[in-house]
């Protein structure tokens, strides 16, 4: 962008491993909305679906594998938020966490 002699540029780079925590009420859409941008940027993904909808995420992960993505690029971890979600959010190799859910559930997900 050039505005009055000032040049500004945004450069986007992959951050590495991205943790993604999605809600129960739109598991397919949320999986896609979280996964696509991360993969487009060259990041690997560890996704934790809501405990009510783990099979949806596992089925999509199977389709990703069938599509030919390398092992380890898209990973699904199932479990409860206070345990699996917190472990994902606190893991030292996870550089970014994308969380979609209620305010109440966010209290169970520690800040990174």
From TrEMBL:
> Which UniProt keywords are listed?
NAD, Oxidoreductase
Q: Pfam families given for it? A: Aldedh
Tell me the superkingdom of the source: Eukaryota
Q: What is its EC number?
A: 1.2.1.3
Annotated ranges, domain Aldehyde dehydrogenase: 5-104
List the GO molecular function terms. aldehyde dehydrogenase (NAD+) activity
- Top-level class of the enzyme under EC nomenclature: oxidoreductase
Q: What's the family?
A: Belongs to the aldehyde dehydrogenase family.
- State the name under which the record lists this protein: aldehyde dehydrogenase (NAD(+))
